[in-house]
Design brief:
- It contains three helices and four strands; from the N terminus they run βαββααβ.
- Helix 1 runs antiparallel to helix 3 (73-83).
- The chain has a single domain (4-93), classed as Alpha-Beta Plaits.
- The protein has a four-stranded antiparallel sheet with strand order 2-3-1-4.
- It has helices spanning 15-31, 63-71, 73-83, and strands spanning 4-12, 35-39, 54-60, 86-94.
- The model has no long low-confidence stretch (mean pLDDT 96).
- The longest helix is centred in the first third of the chain and has 17 residues, at 15-31.
- The chain has 98 residues and is α+β, with helices and mostly antiparallel strands.
């Protein structure tokens, strides 16, 4: 089974309200078997233009696990906290199983 990765590039506009999302989301990720590989931190743009100021990479055992987490009632309940207080891009990638 190939691992899957959720990659987010986010710019937070309301840090105080976004903080509640930041507190609640880790438990939903863990509940569906995911784990953070990158959560914020310093980044250096080597090429092109960044799509956000904050980077997140979350690893799941499979694409199905990642999709189940994203569409879960637990995550959907807190998703507006992210969407209403930031803007960005979120993508799901299959891992390389070479």
């Amino acid at each position: 089974m190939t691992k899957a990765y959720i990659v987010g590039e986010i710019t937070v506009h309301n840090p105080e309200a976004y903080a509640l999302y930041g507190q609640k989301v880790p438990a939903t990720i863990a509940q569906y078997g995911g784990k953070y590989l990158v959560r914020g931190g310093t980044s250096t743009q080597l090429e092109g233009k960044a799509q956000g100021t904050r980077r997140v990479v979350i690893e799941f055992a499979s694409r199905a696990s990642a999709e189940t987490w994203y569409h879960s009632p637990e995550y959907q309940a807190i998703l507006p906290l992210r969407q209403n207080n930031s803007e960005g891009h979120l993508a799901l990638f299959d891992g390389y199983d070479g």
